[in-house]
Structure formats: C-alpha cells, structure tokens
C-alpha cells in the first residue's frame, strides 16, 4: 500500500525552520487511502464494542481482563499493523501505524496498555534483537499471546535515565547475567510475559536485557494506586540475583542508551497521536452535552462563551493532527529512502525516527497539552456534572494528566527541541548560521513596505516566514550572548522552544488548508480556513510573548531594543475577527453533533 503524494524528498529534521515547504507536497489526513480508512474505522469499532461498555471493569483492574483485551486486539490485527510479515505482521507503513495509535488513543487505560505493548514493550526486540530473539518473541507479542513491558525508570532516575542503579554482572560460569536492583512505574508490569529491562554491566555499561516472567530472582510489587489511567497495570519490578541467560542480552553491552533513546523518539510521536485521538472523543462528548444541557430555557451550545470553548478545542485538535501526519509521512519517506539505500530494516526504521526527533519532541509537548486543554474545558462545559464519575469526561480528565510526564516530561522535551536543533547546527546537519545572518542583516535594513501579493494565503505565508525569522533572531542572539551557558538558562531555552512549537504547528495547519483549498476551492473549505487563520492570529501573539520573555532574560541596552523591535516586526498579524470565526467553527460541530474536522 502506498501513501505517496506528489512530493519530492522530505526535508531533513529541523529544516522546516530555514526552508519553505510546499503545502501541495504535504501529507494530510485527506490523503488517507481506502485501506487506511478501513483500519481507522476498525479501531473506532473496537473501542465502541470491546472497551467503552466495560470501562469501569477495566478501571477496577479486574484480573486477566486487560490481557484478554490485548489478545482480542491481536486477533483483529491491531497489534501487528506495522510489524514485518515474516513475523506474522501486516507490514504496513508508518503513517498507517500512526492512524492505529490515534484512533485507539481514545480508549483510556486500554490505550495506555496497547501503546506500551506495541511500542516500548515490543519494538526494542524488533529493532535490536538477534534473529533468534525476534523469532522467539515477536510472533507471540504481535498476536497478543504474550504481553510486553519496558523497565527503564527507577526510584531515583526518571528523566536522568542513564543514572540507573540496577546492576548486572556475568556469572562465573559465563551462562547468566546476575541482575540486582528495581524498576518503578512499569506499564503492563503486572501481567506482562516479556520485559525489556536496562541495567549497568560491571557498574557502568548501560545495557538492555530481555527478561521473561518467572525468571529466577525476578518479582513484582503490588499495583500502584494512581490518579488516572486506573485500569493500566503499573507496578515495581525487583531483581535479586536475577539470573538472565546470556542469550537474552539485547543489543551490545554498554549501548543500551541507543535502545532507550531511539525508542523514545517513536514513542513521543505515538503519544501525540493517542492524545489527538482522545481529544476528538472528548470534544464530541462535550458538543453533545452542550446541545442537550439547557440553562435559561435554551441549550448552552447557544451561548458565545460555550461556542468559544468548543471552537478553541477544535482549532487545537485540527492543528495538532496536521502537524502529526505531516511528520509521520516524513518519517515514512525517510525509512523508505534508507531501505532503498540498502540499510537493514531496523536501521531504516530507527533512522527515520532519529532524523525527525526534533519534530517528535514538539508533537509530544503539543499533543499532550492539547488533550489536557480539551478535557479541562470539557469538564467546564459539563459544569457540576463534569465532576461526577457518572460522566466520562471526568475519567478523561484524570487519565489525561500523565501524558505530560511520561515519554520524557514536557519540560525535558522543550529543552530537547532547542538542544537538538543547536547540536545539529554545530554538526553541520542543519544550516542555521546562513539564515540567521540574513535575518540580522534584514533587521538592520529599512523594512520592505511593498504591496502584498493579491494571492490567496499570501499574507499567511509571509507571517509564517516572519515567525521563523523571529525564532532565528532570538535563538541566534541567545547563543551569541550566552554561548555554552545556554544549557543552564532553561527558561530561555523553553521560551525559544515554545516559539518553535507554535511556528511548526502554524506552518503545518497552513500547509494543510492551502492544499485543501487547492483541491476543493476556497468556498469548499471555509471552516478550515477559519481554523487556520484563528490559530495563526493567536500564534503570532504567543510567539511574540515567548520571544520577549527570552530576550529580556539575556539582553539589555541597544541590543535588547533592536531584537525586541525585530520581534514586533516579525510577529505582526493583520486584524482578524476571531470571535466570528470561532462561532462558525462551533456552529458546524453543533449542527453535526460531533467533532467534524
């Protein structure tokens, strides 16, 4: 199956900041082919039939239930979509696997279990396992016969994964590695059959191992009592002279960081996909409630304050979805490019995710914060009923909060966004110097007040180009002023990361809508244009605020004045009636009684 659109080679990771992408070559959900739409619908049906009727049973951690649901998903092929046919998988592309993650992402605790199983619970073996390990474990994992889990976090090492204390040493007879230590917050830990676990060989060589349930010296703690995702099994793992056969070493000794960090790149995008899927369901529930709930003798959906909330939720979701599939297709194209160059399957898949690690970090932050916003406003729309366990929005609210913490906290991912960009520039992988110098030169020159092109979306394209200039002048000045100290100025780094997140999303939604308008005509996508223009209008102000906060933290005097002047110039958006646009966006959903974008 092909998801190709008429596009040239994808940009390299981070290049969107310094190069213009053609909207007509951008992959969007409107490009889904028939088979992908069928898989999407299958995911929706699975949640409606198998998950939603028993959410309370799932949240009560009914013994054996979650594992049986994973097995049912396996029987329907939902665990094996992206795995190679030689192991019993369906061999579909990365975009298709992203669709599965999105549309199963609304399944509350089940979504967490299945994402952990198909992602961190299985991919380390697929990507780094020996041929014998793959043949032994992958078929059973993707059929749902066995469940997978992943043990990285420890009580004193979360974001600092390499600070792990769990140790491993080779036994005297050379047949086993003896592990001692503990892991915490292990999703699926209570029922998994296979665990990818990290330990330090001889005290300093961070290394991965595959450990089976029942291995001597391996035990687990009781289920954790959590604020949300209550139906997701979460336990601690204990290793006391645990005897792991040498053939269960995963990858190379001392190279466990390659496994951990590469898997996280993929996991971040998949978390964003699940968050967007969960957001759509939560918004649909809120639309339906607003239509049926009456106050002052009319539905609350008639009120402007409620319409504003519904529309803003839709704007964030549509924008996040646009950025998600734009990136997923880039990763897919990079994988195919590496395969065509003769790279092995696992290196090609990992190479695609690594190339776009910056974008994966951006997506993780934005997707998780969109879901938090949507469920929070959903509770507000439900009023007092939103605080009642009888309404599903309260479960969605509790379940959402974890997403900003795992797969790297949002603070870590913001820091990574800028850190990875600067490192690629230093390595010569990304040319930031030339464009940054050009912007500085432009800033010193007289502004061009030439007439605007009388072309649809010309002003929006110019705004995106200017927002990129705002990032370049702010980050360039920060690097020049702070030099190597910039890593200790985390507030500044996060401000610049927020500028990048807003701009990447703004360009993504503009590209999608421009492509839609090219295919349907401007009149055929008015509501989508409303979404795009409202997002861009607000994003300009947010980029300006983040930029000012960054500049005021490291610059002063004439330098400060010059950069702030540039920020004001580059974040200027034309006046726009966002109130009426939001009302139109909300009215369409109200008429269709669901999220319909």
What would you note in describing this structure?
This protein has 597 residues and is α+β, with helices and mostly antiparallel strands. The chain has helices at residues 34-51, 55-59, 65-75, 94-103, 109-118, 123-128, 131-143, 256-292, 304-340, 345-355, 357-382, 392-400, 410-427, 433-444, 458-482, 490-520, 526-554, 557-570, 578-592; strands at residues 148-151, 167-170, 176-187, 194-201, 205-212, 218-220, 234-245, 249-250, 294-295, 298-299. The protein has four domains: 15-147, Orthogonal Bundle (Butyryl-Coa Dehydrogenase, subunit A, domain 1); 149-250, Beta Barrel (Butyryl-CoA Dehydrogenase, subunit A, domain 2), CATH 2.40.110; 256-411, Butyryl-CoA Dehydrogenase, subunit A, domain 3; 432-592, Butyryl-CoA Dehydrogenase, subunit A, domain 3. Strands 1, 2, 3, 4, 5, 6, 7 and 8 form an eight-stranded mixed sheet that branches. Strands 9-10 form a two-stranded antiparallel ribbon. The longest helix has 37 residues, at 256-292. The two termini are 25 Å apart. Mean pLDDT is 94; it is low at 1-8.
Structural class: alpha+beta
**What is the fourth-level CATH superfamily of the largest domain?**
Butyryl-CoA Dehydrogenase, subunit A, domain 3
Continuous helix count: 19
Name the CATH architecture of the largest domain: Up-down Bundle
Largest sheet: 8 strands, mixed
CATH class of the largest domain: Mainly Alpha
**Poorly predicted tracts of residues:** 1-8
How many β strands by DSSP?
10
By CATH, the topology of the largest domain is: Butyryl-CoA Dehydrogenase, subunit A, domain 3
Q: How would you state the average pLDDT, rounded?
A: 94
Radius of gyration from the alpha-carbon trace, in angstroms: 24 Å
What is the domain tally? 4
* Gross morphology: globular
SSE succession: HHHHHHHEEEEEEEEHEEHHHHHHHHHHH
Quote the beta fraction. Answer: 5-15%
In whole angstroms, how far apart are the ends? 25 Å
The helix content, as a percent range, equals 55-70%
